[in-house]
Amino acid sequence: MYWPLVGIVPTLQRFLAAYREVFFRDNGFEHVSRYINGLLLSANKTLQGIYAQIVWPTDQPVSRRAMHEAVFEAGWSRDDLMRCHRQTIAPNYRGRGRAVISVDWTFSYHPYSEQIYGAKDAHDYVNRCQSCYQTVVTAAVANPHRVDGLAVEVQQPNYQKEELVYLTMTRRESYDQMEQVNERLERVTALSSTSTGLSQAH
User: Fold this and answer.
1) 139 and 179: one domain?
2) From CA 3, how far away is CA 103, in angstroms rounded?
3) What global pTM score does this model have?
C-alpha cells in the first residue's frame, strides 16, 4: 500500500529554496521539488510511481508529461546545480573540525534495458556473473557533524573490445583517398590512447 503524497515536506522545501535560481520557471522548480520529495518518501522511485501518489489540487491538475518535461527535459544545468549545492553547504564546513572527502563507486543494475544512459551488459565482478549495469561514481564530504554529497557521475562504459573488432573488420589493404587514411589513423589512435589509459589505471 502506498501513502498519498500531499504537498512537499516543509524541511525539504526550506532546503530546496537555495536552489531556486538554477531553474527557469516556478512551475518547473515545483515539479523537481515534488520529484525529490517522492524519491525520499515513495517506495516506487520512478517518476510514474511518484506521480501516481501525488494528490494534486483540484483546480491545478498537472499531466505526468508536464512533470517529466520539467524534471528531465527543461534544460536546467547540472553543472550550475552542483555549483550552487557546493556553495550552499560550504559554510557548514568552515571552522567545524577536520573535513574528509571520500570517493566511491557502485553498480546500478538495469537488467531489462541497455538503452539507459551509461548501461552496458558486462561481467559483474561483484556478483560474479554477466549483468547489465551502470558504474556510478560518487564523492562526499564529512566532518564530525554532518555528511554531504559533492558530486555524482555515471561512468561511460568501456567499449574497447567492440571498437577493436570493428577496426579489424573494416581494415583494408589500401586506401584511395587521403581522407580515408586520416579517418582510419584517428580511430586507431583513439583506441590506442584508451588502451594506454586503462593499462596505467590497472
Assistant:
1) no
2) 35
3) 0.65
CB 101, CB 140: distance < 8 Å: yes
Could you tell me how many helices (H) and strands (E) the chain has, helices first? 7, 4
Domain count, the chain: 3
Neighbours of 24 (CB within 10 A): 12
Three-state DSSP at 175 gives coil
Residue identified by cell 583494408 is 172
Could you say which of 155, 173, 189 is where a domain stops? 155
| Nearest C-alpha neighbor of 198 from the set 158, 166, 144 | 158
Q: How many CB atoms lie within 10 A of CB 81?
A: 15
Contacts of 145 (CB under 8 A, 6+ apart): 92, 96, 97
Are the C-beta atoms of 47 and 71 separated by less than 8 Å? yes
Q: Do residues 17 and 68 both lie within one domain?
A: yes
- 124 and 147 in one domain? yes
Q: How do the pLDDT tens digits run along the chain, 202 residues long?
A: 456 787 788 999 999 999 999 998 998 899 999 999 999 988 888 888 898 888 876 666 778 898 899 998 888 998 999 999 999 999 999 999 999 999 998 999 988 877 888 888 888 988 999 999 999 999 999 999 999 999 999 888 777 777 777 667 677 667 666 676 667 667 767 666 655 444 443 3
